[in-house]
Fold this protein.
Amino acid sequence: GEALGIGVGRHLATWSQRWPVLLVLDDLDRADAGVLEVVADLTAEVTSSATLVLGIFRSERGDGGRSTGAGAQIALGGLSSQEVAEVCALYGDAWTTDDLRRIGAASGGLPLAVHEMAAAAARQAMASEVRAATDQAQAAEHRLAAAQQSVADHVVGLQRVAEQRRQQLTS
């Protein structure tokens, strides 16, 4: 039968005839030789199509920018504090310096981690705002119900007074 990498590569190449395809393979540093062979076959199969295969692996500091195969290796560092602030700004503008410092330190400046932490913080802030708005709406609803009951009581009282006056006038 056909090798797995070649078969998957052919499917990706076919799909890329309709729209470009991006395949992201993470943690390749943990892959065994068989998996890496499948990846090599796959990438060889899609070279003339609108397919980008992005392989991500972690290397030890000092490995340098060695190249593996026909591809290129780009060594990425963590985001700067300004870049962390720019990513966080995508999720709102209520970030304090301490928030940004905390996210930068906890994420190690890794872009995906910064995005995930900023999104989680934004969701948490929105949930808090929704809870506060819900509490205010419930309080307003209770005040309205109390006001409606008070008005109804006054109307009933006025109706009684009017009825008593009518009875006095007719007697």
